[in-house]
Amino acid sequence: MRVGGNVIGKLLRCAALRFYFHHVNAFILSNCEMTSTKEQLLERLKPFGQQHLLNWWDELSADQQNALAERIQQIDFALIEKIRQAAGNKEAADGAADSAARIESAAAPRSVVLQPTTDAERNQQQNDTALGEQLLADGKVAVITVAGGQGSRLGFDAPKGMFPIGPVTDRTLFQIFAEQIAARKKRHGGQIPWLIMTSAATHQPTVDFFQQQNHFGLDHATIHFFQQGSLPAVDAKTGKVLMADKASICLSPDGHGGLVTALESSGLLKQLADAGVEQIFYHQVDNPTVIMCDPALIGVHRRRESQLTTNVVKKSSPTEKMGVLVDVNGRLEIIEYSELTEEQAAKEDESGQWIFWAGNTAIHVFARTFFEELASDGCRLELHVANKKVAHIDQHGQPVEPESPNANKFERFIFDALPLAKNALIVEGNRDREFNPVKNADGSDSPATSRAALNRIGREWLAKAGHNIPDGTNVEISPLIALDEDELATKLSDGTVSVSDLTDAD
Ligand code: UD1
User: Fold this and answer.
1) What is the pTM of this model?
2) Among 365, 315, 308, which Cα is nearest to 335's?
């Protein structure tokens, strides 16, 4: 379901003043609308039929009343209504046909920078790498880690970045990223600001964890935690905002596309500009084998003057749960895995190649100025409506645990920026090396597969340096020891590191 971004843009422009709230920043209100008495709140809610939010007002403590009033004032009920209507109309009228036509006319992306196979391509990649390294040395690159997701598929209670994944030491995902950044700084010399986007659920535990870990040795002034917004869930049938309990509204993160608004309203986008940062390396918290600040990717992105570059890999099977990059009528887009039937996902072109092959690894490079464009006039990314199961209380205050989707949630996707980008670029990555995410508790993309990949990569690097490790012995190479096989080989040969430091062999 797609909703016109311009409608949303207009609504956002109508708002007189944008606030950045610590917990909720995505909906907008004007200063003069700040009210707090029950009567004033009722007046605000009545035109939208949302008075039920105050059903238990008189039973609440003063603190609870204040918190609820603040939340209510942060919600743009008119916007919710518009989005729901637009989505509903689209679905009723031509939504299914639209979506089918879009998938039908999708073609494999026309222009992809593939993995190099010729000397000329390898030379070009080396030149791009040198360019990326220079940008890193000049302090022109920052990193954004999106870590606001609730990781429900993994079934891990803490933020996903705290998940232990190292095959020998149980290093966490956050530690691996931190060590990669530290090693890049050391190698190239420039500063690399690290921006970590959290959500209401993941913010405090993430900040606390970094403090406990002494920011993994990084200068804490270069790490910036900022919180994405939250949006309310509404009853799918009635559009009424759902209450989590008598004092609070059901809220959920506004999607990784919430990054655009959160970056701007936190002041970080301006800070990056002031610091002379030009390129932003973006990655998800779930992939420990991401090549952080990949100089080759940053270099080709810069050389081609791309506003948004996306790393893709060939899907392992047509139904693998990855978004796919496609051309739709000349426009570069991502079609999410949830939009394709099994049959569509396996569709081939005349040469027998999958049309939907180019899986989005969610490793991107953004030009900083592109974020500024996206954030201008409110966020230019669409809001999507998703039908989800949301536990809530009913009108009698009784808890409801739905068995099927009962609610609309709203979120933005960062990859909706692709069709808006000038010179958007797709670059094929090395799947085995770069894409081994932790998503599910078991099976594919699980801790077991991701840990096995780290182990395999370590063994391959050691084998290239002439050390074959027996089966059953685990290998883990800290990025502080080596960022790549060449660095490892050098350190092994000059005696800085010994094989026994890298395995769990007795
Ligand atoms: C995502 C992509 C998919 C891609 C795949 C690669 C979406 C909708 N799809 O799928 O195209 O092929 O990764 O691994 O993203 N996050 C936030 N805030 C939010 C929601 C998510 O920060 O409100 C972060 C999560 O912490 C995580 C990332 O975004 O780092 C991905 O979220 P997730 O919902 O797990 O996406 P996938 O379904 O795995």
Assistant:
1) 0.91
2) 315
